[in-house]
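Something for you to look into today, if you have time. What I am after is a single protein written out in full by you. I want to see for myself how the chain folds. Could you add the entry underneath, on a fresh line?
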Amino acid sequence: MKYQAIIFDLDGTLIDSMQLWRQVDEEFLQKRGIPVPPDLFDLLPQGNSFIQTAQHFKDRFGLGDSVESIMQEWTQMVREHYTKGVPLKPGVRELLDQLAASGVRIGLGTSNSMELARLVLSAHGVWHYFQGWGTGDMDLRGKPFPDIFLRSAQDLGVSPQSCIAVEDTLSGVTAARAAGMRVYAIYDADSHPFWDQIQALAHLSFEDYNSLSPILQGELGINTGA
């Protein structure tokens, strides 16, 4: 089957940013004089949307801040990093160039906000390649529910079954499978503890984009040049 579109997750999939978000979460609490609990990330559900994560912090730490103000503060904290210090993963730019040149529809399915997604992808000169968006600040259920991927496919004007999704987390792979998409897992060190489960759930799994790109040649009917 030739697939019509590809939908990428953002953090940990297209950009190398997962450690940055851990740093931001810790600094956010430290600014309020709240000790960082050792289980901070263990109890933070993987794949939570931007809104859900802000609500989780508000509830868990009894914050007087509104969910909206928490999201705004996080956005300000990562803005400079996203414009200057967060790299694309190796091979991503070349792959996006090839996909776009071949006329493949490209979508984004991320728990992050639209503003930050636009910021970091624009900084790398690839934002204009994306034609469909499902983001964590939309009124959608977060991963592992399929809503974010379904919204992106809807924007692209294609059926979920005609999409390939590329993800790095267990919740993301679960969400894309629930959406009815073909799912390719890409390795990220932050998800290493779950890699065996991710590999078992994804249709195919890859250590890096050098190994993923050639597979897309047949699946999307393109020549990646690999």
Summary: The CA atoms of residues 14 and 170 lie 16 Å apart.
